[in-house]
Amino acid sequence: MNLNLLIDNITNPALLFFILGILAVKLKSDLAIPDSSSKFISLYLLFAIGFKGGQELAHSDFNFQVSGAIIFGILLSAIVPLYVFFLVKKRLGTENAGAVAAAYGSISAVTFVTAVSYLEILDISFGGHMVATMAFMEAPAIIVGMFLIKQYSVESTTVKTKQVLHHALTNSSVLLILGSLVIGFLASEEHARGIEPFTTDIFKGFLAVFLLDMGIQSGRKLSDFFKTGFSNLYLAIGLPFVNGTLTALISSFFIDSLGDRFLLSILAASASYIAVPAAMRVVAPKSNPGIYLPMALAITFPINISLGFPIYMYILKLVASTS
């Protein structure tokens, strides 16, 4: 693996702030980001990446590469929950298995935003349609997870399909990212330049502060998570590498852009810790968030941004050099 690439990723300020957050918890520091500030920053990140993606999409041709990436992403989001569910159902039970399956089939918008920042550091371009791909990948996994729970649960659930569909399609992250994408697509270049300092110049600073908060939250959940045993730990480490590596290999057959293939790999490797937990409160109230939430946030998220990024990039470049 390219040593310089690994060093660049390890010394990324965003990652270092994430590690600082974990250390703050371990040192029992009172360092904390106010909830209101954390929510604002998360909304800002989704707005900025959506708006910039819309601007990029406005200058992109809708061709096989674009439609192929979007369709492939949606299929991934629907297929991954199926194999994950049956992989863990016997050990975790139906509702917990459905929640874990939905989490790993869905995506992490924060991981995607961090991956975009990583590509910018490497000066690798990507298509604006990847923002739409990310948004479209969030809902299918939640829907599949819901149907699996309803199908295999001993106790029939009274949750209406319409209720879950509405939640999956209108939760704040999906609505904001899609709305910002459309606005960015419709906005003229002159209007876009008017808010560029807000959407571009301060983006990395806000990302660093947000990841500091994510580090604090992850650190708080680690101790409780390890009480559930090491099986979930191995799963939280293995699933992203399996999903990310397979996507990196398969996507090379129909997508030319290195940046697009990298983002698809990251989306496949990531796990949702915002939209899915909120949905599972409705769909599977008996599921244990102490299992799937730390798996996604405290293990898979840091694994992806520390080791996953350089590994998937190495695989993609290796595939490109041998093709």
TrEMBL record:
Q: Would the keyword S-adenosyl-L-methionine turn up in this protein's UniProt record? A: no
* UniProt keyword terms in alphabetical order: Membrane, Transmembrane, Transmembrane helix
Locate the transmembrane regions by residue number.
Answer: 6-25, 37-54, 66-88, 100-119, 131-149, 169-188, 233-255, 261-284, 291-315
The record's listing under Pfam families reads: Sbt_1
Q: Output this protein's name.
A: Sodium-dependent bicarbonate transport family permease
